[in-house]
């Protein structure tokens, strides 16, 4: 057995501790895979006094993360600080001296990955980021390498465990959104400030990364159309169930159009998903990604999308890949974003108004004669078919609710129709509009 | 763009044609990934006059497969002949002259892979075989690389689409086994001689490969305990459903015992699976593999396990990996069986009699008083609990059926109890014995 490969871990939070634990617990098996041991020799910690759930014996701890990135005698670095800055500067410092880096930092990769990867290429080092999407599920490797023979037609994923936990609670117990969120916070599934998760930005970061490796397009987080789950109600979840659907927060990337008209859709939104699909059945904090390739058809992946150990699983897999590549000619490596950097080509982003799907609509209406006939007349005038409709008798003094699912239409046509409906005197509110995806 | 990478395809059956099609259809994207085009320049065909569903223009066809393997001016070879011989000799001939090979040949890898990989190492070439297990699902890569940080505790898979199709038909339509098999043959899902699929050998080949890369053990097809699906009846499927289970043919590899007592279970058999698990929901010709790692927890994969295009997807992914590695130092490559060859270590195989699980038992019994009391007394005397039991009133002159599910016990204890039951005068037949796996 040759000399150990020395690993520095920047940040000893949940993920950093998980990495230290995993490299110690499975040291023998990992050495049998790589041919050399992988040993954490350095770690940076902000608060040295804090109790940690890992054994730090044999590890030199530094208070200064930048010192670790710039100077420590290590072969590989793991960045688990998160956020854009100073994580970016730490990674760039490590790359500048030719050290390859593993990161779980989806925000940084999605928002400034193009710069990070260019810096890596300039120094002959690598940046690996399997842990940035869907935690322990090796979906980056699957899409980038395992499905590399395919032209990917679309992918869709439940890529935020917090939102999926909240929606599952709402589905199973009829809990209101706010209560389900508090429950998630109490269990540590949601942050004190949950905005990033529940407003869909975290999913959008992950989707931007997946889309880039699937389609060979540049990272383009800013083009993702994002809608979070704060407007989903138990009532809509329950009506969706009657229609044979479940409501999930999905990230969807899809090719659209043909030939020179070709573009891609990039969107994160609550989605009605048929209840007999795998995505509909993925509950709680689990993540799942389904990819459709022209040769392979539909391939699905599921597992834990977060948590120290699951994320550490992805970080250590990346470390093992990088350890094998130490000293190798970088030209033989898999490109970070699946395609050769000079072969990455932007495709037009389809504006949301043009993106076609079926739609779910729930209107609050006064309980009076002629309501349905006027609503359906408007839909017909926009050439929109009604695929499913539900109106139940209102209880007590409630308004009546009319819920329906349309045929597949571009959003602008749906919006025009809904705007006309809103102008009707008996329509109190358009209470919910969500996309429906059948994945057929 | 540099010079094209030349690929030779040995055998132009369903998979070979799929590979030719895919490399042509997606030529531009594949070149953008690799940095060089991948072009099929040679193919061997037994019957040159046969119509094929792919464009052979620009491809030199040879009648002699061995000539292609030994002499053709190619960079990489694809073997799609199948079976042990002459596939093995063709691959060894290609490796002998330093050409790396992609194969979908599970029988060869499972039964003689150790020799094939040794030949590859001796010549500095590689053998890639993603397509050998679960068709288009990149499960080899996932287990070997994506989950490499984990100590794998167990894996279980539906890895034969023919059997899953037959069992699904039996489940959904109450079809008898023979009729479902004929149906599968008519649709091309089963061979004219279906023995290999329905008797479980095909699943055993795939399981042996998965187990080796998961545990770092040598390939050991001969040690897989195999039972096919021919004894599964619609009646057992229906009773299992009442108990909350579905019957699936699973390949299961599992660590068992602790410390020096450690061994592995390798088994293929019809299994009662709780109906709320992913495996229970994978129907028709689809495949699915679920892996449990110590860090990642449960990770699942599903997709098409067979068919020309899905299998070609895996073959081309391997070709892309090998194309990237052309000219690279082989010491940096991922070992074929995940672990360094000198670090592969055999673990004792747990004999079937010692393998513990819950069991499903159905007995045909005469309809007379005291039956249940005598049966349950025998179970109690062997310290076996009854977790579920069903007896329905017999119709007409039928024997009565008693079906039950036991607690988790080693098979020898179950067998002893069943043997005692068989000796009872009112027991006509032990009509079905299957293992139950709860995956908790």
From TrEMBL, chains A, B:
Sequence positions that bind L-homoserine: 191
Pathway assigned to this chain's UniProt record: Amino-acid biosynthesis; L-methionine biosynthesis via de novo pathway; L-homoserine from L-aspartate: step 3/3; Amino-acid biosynthesis; L-threonine biosynthesis; L-threonine from L-aspartate: step 3/5
Coiled coil: none
Biological process according to GO: methionine biosynthetic process; threonine biosynthetic process
Keyword Oxidoreductase: yes
Tree of life domain: Bacteria
Binding site for NADPH: 106
Cross-referenced Pfam families: ACT, Homoserine_dh, NAD_binding_3
Active site: 206 (proton donor)
InterPro entries: ACT-like_dom_sf, ACT_dom, Asp/hSer_DH_NAD-bd, HDH, HDH_cat, HDH_CS, NAD(P)-bd_dom_sf
Keywords: Amino-acid biosynthesis, Methionine biosynthesis, NADP, Oxidoreductase, Threonine biosynthesis
E.C. number: 1.1.1.3
UniProt entry tagged with the keyword RNA-binding: no
Annotated GO MF terms: homoserine dehydrogenase activity; NADP binding
ACT domain segment(s): 360-435
Reaction(s) catalysed by this chain's protein: L-homoserine + NAD(+) = L-aspartate 4-semialdehyde + NADH + H(+)
Family classification: Belongs to the homoserine dehydrogenase family.
Record's protein name: Homoserine dehydrogenase
Lineage of producing organism: Bacteria, Pseudomonadati, Pseudomonadota, Gammaproteobacteria, Nevskiales
């Amino acid at each position: 057995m040759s000399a150990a490969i020395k690993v520095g871990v920047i940040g000893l939070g949940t993920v950093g501790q998980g990495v230290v634990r995993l490299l110690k617990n499975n040291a023998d098996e990992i050495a049998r895979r790589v041919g050399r041991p992988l040993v954490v020799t350095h770690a940076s910690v902000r608060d040295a006094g804090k109790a940690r759930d890992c054994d730090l014996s044999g590890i030199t701890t530094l208070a200064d993360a930048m010192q670790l990135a710039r100077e420590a005698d290590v072969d590989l670095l793991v960045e688990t600080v998160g956020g854009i800055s100073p994580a970016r500067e730490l990674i760039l410092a490590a790359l500048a001296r030719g050290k390859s880096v593993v990161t779980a930092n989806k925000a940084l990769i999605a928002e400034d990955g193009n710069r990070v990867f260019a810096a890596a290429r300039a120094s002959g080092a690598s940046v690996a980021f399997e842990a940035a999407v869907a935690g322990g599920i090796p979906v980056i490797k699957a899409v980038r390498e395992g499905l590399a023979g395919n032209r990917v037609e679309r992918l869709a994923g439940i890529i935020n465990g917090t939102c999926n936990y909240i929606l599952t609670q709402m589905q199973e117990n009829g809990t209101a959104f706010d209560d389900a969120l508090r429950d998630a916070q109490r269990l540590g599934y949601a942050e004190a400030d949950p905005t990033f998760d529940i407003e869909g930005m975290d999913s959008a970061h992950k989707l931007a990364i997946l889309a880039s490796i699937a389609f060979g397009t540049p990272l383009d987080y800013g083009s993702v159309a994002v809608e979070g789950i704060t407007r989903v109600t138990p009532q809509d979840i329950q009506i969706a169930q009657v229609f044979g659907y479940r409501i999930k927060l999905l990230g969807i990337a899809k090719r659209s159009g043909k030939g020179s008209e070709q573009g891609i859709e990039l969107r994160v939104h609550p989605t009605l998903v048929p209840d007999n699909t795998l995505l509909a059945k993925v509950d709680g904090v689990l993540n799942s990604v389904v990819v459709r390739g022209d040769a392979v058809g539909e391939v699905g992946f599921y597992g834990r999308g977060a948590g120290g150990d699951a994320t550490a699983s992805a970080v250590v897999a990346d470390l093992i890949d990088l350890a094998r590549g130490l000293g190798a000619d970088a030209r033989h490596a898999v490109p970070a974003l699946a395609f050769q950097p000079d072969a990455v080509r932007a495709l037009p982003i389809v504006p949301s108004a043009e993106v076609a799907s079926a739609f779910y609509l729930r209107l609050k209406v006064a309980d009076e004669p002629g309501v349905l006939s006027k609503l359906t007349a408007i839909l017909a005038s926009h050439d929109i078919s009604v695929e499913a409709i539900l109106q139940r008798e209102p209880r007590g003094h409630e308004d009546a609710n009319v819920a329906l699912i349309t045929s597949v239409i571009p959003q602008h046509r749906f919006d025009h129709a809904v705007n006309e409906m809103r102008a009707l005197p008996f329509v109190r509110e358009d209470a919910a509009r969500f996309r429906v995806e059948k994945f057929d």
